[in-house]
């Protein structure tokens, strides 16, 4: 909870999330529960039995793991723990529990109304877990969430830059030929993992294939990479959105390019601070982007790892920047406009924004 007079507005404001990794919502306590259910040893055993690494003490308990999650030194330090945790996710029921626990929490605590959730298909197929297990579990939970909260949720695979381009291409081909896109079970394509030494041009054939099939496209860019990386990703992949994109702020010319193209950035300021991209939230370019007319939404990224669930992100931004009610309205409207949902659903979501803001103004606040 923030101390701002706008706090009641911030809790009531309908939220739209476009950058949350399903696997990044796996809390230490659910991780330990699923490990016990699926008979998976924690800490994970050493890759080399002949010269075993000492066991990582972070895996002693949910509390020690939570404590370790407060001190990531970089994106790669975080990704090490993030990928290790995938091992406990095996069955459709596991993915259903994970999805239900995040979305129900976000609906109650943040008034989340529409979520476009990422998952990492290669992180599962490489362990022998089929993509259909993720999709089936997610859709089962999403149907319950829609019935209980009226919250709509869709699923988008994020290919991993840590795997080869060939692997990514064959993963996308498999998802297309399995009919996941035709049936509306998946709606877009993303790309995540480290940007270092992975220039956008490498991944162009993958995004060309997605474009050919009319698949929505986004990619993580400008989290670690420079502004030029963001511009190249937008141009090479024909992106509608950019995930993070914060380093674009370092080049005025790239900021202008994003405004001109109407590209929406899915900002995750709490994640950026947790991964040491910025020393404090006030240094992230929220104010700069608002003033320059760059469209963005605010997101949690990997909330179980960064200690910032969606409502916390909104409160942290308000505490750092002291935005006005009108600026929050702009953020909410841009987030709806940048969503990958039907025009009818957008109209409903915009109505909800309007009602909350009207109520706030009528109270004279
Ligand atoms: N950046 C890159 N890869 C990721 C992230 C991120 O923020 N979260 C999960 N995978
Ligand atoms: Zn991300």
Automatic annotation (TrEMBL):
Substrate binds at residue 302. The record marks 244 as: Important for catalytic activity. Keywords: Cytoplasm, Hydrolase, Metal-binding, Nucleotide metabolism, Nucleus, Zinc. Its EC number is 3.5.4.2. The active site is at 223 (proton donor). InterPro entries: A/AMP_deam_AS, A_deaminase_dom, ADE, Ado/ade_deaminase, Metal_Hydrolase. It is found in: Cytoplasm; Nucleus. GO terms for biological process: adenine catabolic process; hypoxanthine salvage; nucleotide metabolic process; purine ribonucleoside monophosphate biosynthetic process. Pfam families: A_deaminase. It catalyses: adenine + H2O + H(+) = hypoxanthine + NH4(+). One of its GO terms (cellular component) is nucleus. It comes from the Eukaryota. Residues 14-355 form the Adenosine deaminase domain. Binds 1 zinc ion per subunit. The keyword Chaperone does not apply. PROSITE patterns: A_DEAMINASE. GO terms for molecular function: adenine deaminase activity; zinc ion binding. Zn(2+) binds at residues 19, 21, 220, 301. Its cofactor is Zn(2+). Belongs to the metallo-dependent hydrolases superfamily. Adenosine and AMP deaminases family. Adenine deaminase type 2 subfamily. PANTHER family: ADENINE DEAMINASE. Catalyzes the hydrolytic deamination of adenine to hypoxanthine. Plays an important role in the purine salvage pathway and in nitrogen catabolism. This is Adenine deaminase. It comes from Podospora aff. communis PSN243. The gene is AAH1.
């Amino acid at each position: 909870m923030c101390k701002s007079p706008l706090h009641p507005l911030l809790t009531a404001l309908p939220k739209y999330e476009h950058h949350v990794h399903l696997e990044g919502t796996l809390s230490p306590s659910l991780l330990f529960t699923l490990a016990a259910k699926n008979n998976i040893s924690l800490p994970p055993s050493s890759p080399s039995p002949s010269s075993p690494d000492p066991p990582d003490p972070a895996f002693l308990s949910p509390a020690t793991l939570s404590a370790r999650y407060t001190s990531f030194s970089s994106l790669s330090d975080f990704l090490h723990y993030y990928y290790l945790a995938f091992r406990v996710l095996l069955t459709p029921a596991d993915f259903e529990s994970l999805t239900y626990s995040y979305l129900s929490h976000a609906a109650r605590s943040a008034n989340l109304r529409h979520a476009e959730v990422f998952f990492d298909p290669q992180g599962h197929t490489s362990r022998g877990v089929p993509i259909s297990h993720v999709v089936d579990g997610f859709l089962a939970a999403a149907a319950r969430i829609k019935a209980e909260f009226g919250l709509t949720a869709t699923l988008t695979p994020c290919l991993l830059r840590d795997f080869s381009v060939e692997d990514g291409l064959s993963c996308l081909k498999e998802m297309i030929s399995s009919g996941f896109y035709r049936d509306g079970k998946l709606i877009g394509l993303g790309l995540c993992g480290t940007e270092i030494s992975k220039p956008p041009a490498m991944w162009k054939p993958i995004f060309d294939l997605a474009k050919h099939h009319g698949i929505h496209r986004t990619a993580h860019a400008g989290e670690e990479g420079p502004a030029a990386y963001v511009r190249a990703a937008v141009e090479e992949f024909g992106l509608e959105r950019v995930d993070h994109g914060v380093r674009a702020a370092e080049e005025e010319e790239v900021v202008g390019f994003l405004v001109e193209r109407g590209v929406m950035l899915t900002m995750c300021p709490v994640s950026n601070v947790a991964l040491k991209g910025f020393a404090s939230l006030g240094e992230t370019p929220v104010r700069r982007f608002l003033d320059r007319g760059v469209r963005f939404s605010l997101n949690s990224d990997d909330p179980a790892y960064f200690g910032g669930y969606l409502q916390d992100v909104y409160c942290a931004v308000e505490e750092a920047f002291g935005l006005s009610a009108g600026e929050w309205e702009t953020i909410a409207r841009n987030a709806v406009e940048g969503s990958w949902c039907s025009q009818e659903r957008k109209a409903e979501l915009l109505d909800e924004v309007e009602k909350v803001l009207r109520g706030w103004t009528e109270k004279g606040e």
